[in-house]
Specification:
With 106 residues, the chain is mainly α. The chain has one domain. The chain is 76% helix and 4% strand. The protein has helices spanning 3-26, 28-32, 35-56, 71-79, 83-90, 93-105, and strands at residues 60-61, 67-68. A two-stranded antiparallel ribbon has the order 1-2. The longest helix has 24 residues, at 3-26. It is elongated and about 55 Å long.
Length: 106
């Protein structure tokens, strides 16, 4: 799998997410009953997780047009830039809330 293919897949997943998020907000109870909808959400989260792993292992070009391939520098650059956004996008908040409610009511 090339990085270019992964970027295309992530872009497609972002487009799908942009369409499905408003639908989920409006019709969450109805959509949760549809098995393929939840599976699609988890598949998209898996693609985003793979993207995070790839970003931690991909060289980048800095401001002075040097290729940075040192893993510590790559990790630091990613952690201070897009990592938090990427990580929060894959956290399954609905599962956490459901588990918390189950634990609280038990």
């Amino acid at each position: 799998m090339t990085k270019q293919f992964l970027e295309i897949m992530v872009s497609i997943c972002l487009l799908i997410t942009c369409i499905l998020t408003p639908l989920n907000l409006a019709f969450s109870e109805t959509l949760e009953a549809i098995a393929w909808y939840m599976n699609l959400n988890y598949a998209i989260d898996c693609f985003f997780f793979i993207d995070i792993v790839v970003n931690f292992n991909s060289a980048y070009i800095d401001e002075s047009y040097e290729v940075i391939d040192d893993r510590k520098k790559i990790a630091h650059s990613y952690l201070v830039s897009w990592f938090l956004v990427d990580f929060l996008s894959i956290v399954p908040f609905e599962l956490i809330v459901t588990a918390a409610d189950t634990y609280k009511n038990a």
